[in-house]
Amino acid sequence: MKKSILQVLGILTLSATLVTSCTTDTSGTDSSSSTFVVNPLNFQGTITEGEVVLVAGTTYKLSGKIQVNSGATLTIPAGTIIEGTGGTASYIAVAQGGKLNVNGTASKPVVMTSGLTTKKAGDWGGLVICGKAPINRVSGGASTAQSEVADLAYGGTVANDNSGSIRYLRIEYAGAAFNSEKEFNGASLFGVGSGTTFEYVETYQGADDGFEFFGGTVNTSNLISFGNEDDQYDWTEGWSGTNTNWYGKISFGKGNRGIEADNFELGFANTPIANPTITNLTLVGPGSGASSLIYTENQGLKLRRGTKGIFSNVVLSSWATGVDVENDESLNAIGTGLKITGINFIDVTTKTKGKKTAVAPATSGVSADASLVIASEISTATGAGNGVNAPSWSAGWSVGL
Asked: From which residue to which does the signal peptide run (predicted)?
């Protein structure tokens, strides 16, 4: 009798598993501990408590914003697809104290993409994460601010702040614009702390920057920025972090710099100073002779406004200018806080250039020798792992390469 009951229970359990695996869970949750109600066909709202766990392999229609507030967590399993359909109204934002866990894999990445039939850059907003790590909008690192998109607070004094774990994520066709001066990036990291995991992430064909760091201390690895219409990577407001394996490439007939880097545009010497370390970097441009009317900022690395940075094992290919250093605060750091060790220039017309800070009309635009930023130039540098070509670590989860 006991054996028969166990057999029946086993059959029922197996049947239930099969039904679950073959149908869409209309609640959109699996083992969630939050009262937040998910509708995969109308995915929007604010998660205020507990953990919301989406269903692996399900497609969610992001019709408005999803915001994860302090004390709440959104967990997205491997193979899940989120399709933005609402322009600037549809985006995912993590507020200070909230957490986002993206648990993709190389064979089953999480994909955030356009939900439109004909997909293009700027179809939806993008990913915004706001943390409590230091920024330098006010010198000293204790300042806070409101994010330029999502209107959430960011910044503070918690250098090791944890906003979750993001692995194997692809963000496509993001960058919806509010106006000509304000638009989303693929991934906007505002004051994100070093307790956050951020690796194996691609931003693909977005309308603004691929990745932009607004202060913070987050470390990253294995990032791809492909075909984004402004800069592939951008930082400001005192961001520092340790980073490995970055690949960026201009494509689709649009794009500006490989990296645009500032300390802070309104305070070149504000502290904490932007000072990341980037090891294994490849940036591929539109070509050294590409039209200057289309590509008005054809530069691999633009380092200015007081930023520092230590770069090693770098490949710069197909740029009119390889490395452009601007403003006295950045120029003065050359050789110590700002240097590139092991760089390979391929099809680059002007390897380095520099310009001092304009202090008066008579000295406006005075050039400076930026060649000393290059600690060593070697033809064997491999960049992100495979020179100008797709690195092996991009296989399976990325697109475009």
From this structure: 1-21
CA pair distance 383, 300, nearest whole angstrom: 13
Residue 246: its H or E element: strand 242-249
Query: CB-based burial of residue 98 (10 Å sphere; 0-12 exposed, 13-18 middle, 19+ buried)?
Result: buried
Cis ω on the peptide bond leading into residue 109 (within 30° of 0)?
no
C-beta atoms surrounding 179 within 10 Å: 7
DSSP alpha helix (H) spans, 211-305: none
For residue 71, how far is the Cα from the chain centroid?
23
Number of H helices, E strands in the chain: 2, 26
Q: φ, ψ for residue 15 (rounded to 5)?
A: -60, -45
pLDDT tens string 304-342: 999 999 999 999 999 999 999 999 999 999 999 999 999
Neighbours of 16 (CB within 10 A): 10
Question: How many other C-beta atoms are found inside a 10 Å radius of the C-beta of residue 286?
Answer: 20
- pTM greater than 0.90 (yes/no): yes
Among 3, 101, 97, which residue's Cα sits nearest to residue 49? 97
Q: Compute the distance between CA of residue 213 and CA of residue 216 in angstroms, rounded to an integer.
A: 7
Give me 23's structure tokens. 């149908």
The CA distance from 93 to 258, in Å, is 25
Please tell me the distance from the alpha carbon of residue 179 to that of residue 214, in angstroms, as a whole number: 20
**From the centroid of its chain, how far is CA 294?**
24
Which pair of tokens denotes residue 274? Answer: 């932007």
SS3 percent helix, strand, coil of the chain, rounded to 5, is: 10, 40, 50
| Tally of CB atoms within 10 A around 40 | 19
Give the separation between CA 214 and CA 238, rounded to whole angstroms: 7
54-105 pLDDT, tens digit each: 999 999 999 999 999 999 999 999 999 999 999 999 999 999 999 999 999 9
Beta-sheet strands, E only, within 250-331: 259-261, 277-284, 299-303, 309-326
- Helix (H) or strand (E) run with residue 249 in it: strand 242-249
